[in-house]
Amino acid sequence: MQKLQLPAPITRFAPTPSGFLHVGNVYSFLITWLLARKNNGQILLRIDDLDQERVRPEYVESIFRTLEWLGLDWDLGPSSVQQFEKEYSQLRRMELYETALQNLKKEEAVFGCDCSRKLVKKLIEEHNYKGICQYKGLDLDDHDISWRLKTDGMAVVQMKRYKQALSVEELPYSQSHFVVRRRDGIPAYHLASVVDDEYFGVNMIARGEDLFESSVAQLYLAEKLGLRAFSQAEFFHHALIMDEGRKLSKSQQSSAVLDEFSQDKAKLLRKLGGWLGVPPEACGSLEEMMKQFSFERVARTISN
Q1: Mean pLDDT over all residues of the chain?
Q2: Which of 46, 11, 17 is nearest to 30 (CA)?
Q3: What's the pTM value of the predicted model, to 2 decimals?
Q4: What is the pLDDT of residues 162-197, one digit of tens each?
Q5: Where are the domains of the chain?
């Protein structure tokens, strides 16, 4: 009997150029890189630049400089800032996002909402958000109206987890009637991310465990859009780096990696290796780290 040939893994780096890359970003990118290289997969560089108000040219440039300095290579996508702007910016894929939005509209899967984000967040925190705007009959094409996806009360999706059995996940309450088109007309993150991953053939996604609920929401959206490739993607949710009980993020340690470690790359590799459970003597290079790295070691939250 001929052995079933599974598709080659394709994963991605997906930074947002709204700031310089910090050590938390690099930690996540390294896990993605290890996931791809250990599985003979390919890596796409996908830069999420839809929110042009927050994008700065120096942030885009720093993505390339930081990844190249670290040796975190990729196989697909732009090789330079110039190629990114000409061929790979999300602005070049607006037609794809608009097609997806219009399909949702045609299927009556979305409703217009004029509630503020603050109000919706408050209602969700109180477990009292019912998507009330879906009963107002607001015109989706009116000014200052966001589009929200109609979500079923007991909606579930199937999720393939890395090297685990298929699981059934319920759509979290926090993702009830999530936004797919912002009130300024820009496609929301969930929609753009799902459409992009489907377009580029991404079938293996590594991200922090804090984004697990987003993964469930995106699988739900992919099902609504009929995006079969994304629906069958394999997910790996890695542990977070915690600093005094809080997620290490831009708000705590936001210094740019190149500013903090440009004179001591070995120090950064040892720091990353420590979080990944790799002994110091095996942190001389990414290749050495790959030999010692085990995905089971990042299955729980790490304290900084």
Answers
A1: 91
A2: 11
A3: 0.91
A4: 988 899 999 999 999 999 999 999 999 999 999 999
A5: 10-102+160-171+197-303
